[in-house]
Amino acid sequence: MFRLATFGGLSLIDDRTPDIAIPRRRLAVLALLAQAGDRGLTRDKLVAYLWPDSSADAARHSLEQLLYSVRRQCGAFVFAGTDPLRLNSAVIASDIAEFESALARGADAEAVALYSGPFLDGFYLKNADEFGRWVEEERSRLGKACAGALERLAERAARCGDWPGAVSSWRALVALDRLSARNASGLIRALAAAGDRPEALRTASAYESLVRQELDIPLEPSLAALVQSLRSDRSNSADRRAAERGPIEDLLQSATPSPQVTTGASFANGDVAHMAPLARANRNTRWRTKQQLLGVMLVLVVWLALSLRTQVYPPTINLTNPDPACDLDYIPNTAREARVRHVLSNSFGFGGQNITLIVSKFGD
Questions:
Q1: Contact, 162 vs 191, CB < 8 A?
Q2: DSSP 8-state secondary structure symbol assigned to residue 334
Q3: pTM over 0.85, yes/no
């Protein structure tokens, strides 16, 4: 069975060949009939689309030759009816027919998944202006249909409190029309509702720059008011947090640097080093770093105890290009059997939160 792909380009595929070599006018007639669906198209209409400048007799002769060639390539039963002509869906399926069917059934998610790009994107036919106009009209209609499905999905997700789903749908809408104030506003609102106010403000700033650059106009008043509201809320939140801090917290906050937490493990008989960044905590979440530090230490204790038990050096993974200046044995990528008697675990955080633990094999 063949399949005609019309979104994001125009191609004919089957189970064996991902892209069948077929002349452009044959593809064009298949696209016309796929869009027409069960209605089909009359031969006169096909002639008008594909050979507008030819005489009636010459155009009909060209059409007969083209249909004959398609039958030879795709099978004798590729067409249904004689006038109007229709595609035989048992021989050739198409994404546009499935898209229209999904919309008719209210299956918006299915329709959106089928829309992989603008209709017949990049496809052009010489000496067929009427066909070109038809492509532009259908491209606009189908794009609006996909946008409508995405907006319904976004609204449905918002009603259910599925803000990540709403954000995803609005992002897809912005990709369809990045200059649309409605799409930008929907995405900004969804991001804010999802709790990602910084990303909402970044999106607003990017959209504002875009419309100024492309259209030389300011933000629409409603969108400008939304952005101002988000900025005011962020400023008020910062003021509230500052008011809740006492003088001691302010002093500590100004004096404490942002920490970088790392852990290290050394094996006595192999000088194995393993360094991995674990977490970066900001100044007002130092207590979380303490919890992470203790948790990582416990994981390392189990890891190193297993090394003592199994007498195996665990590998340093993803070490493919070591620095020549580092002359230690890092046990790259593959574990190694060895006699292990002592292990050392270092967990380093901000000042005063450093933990070193030495474990030795019992009896040594």
A1: no
A2: S
A3: no
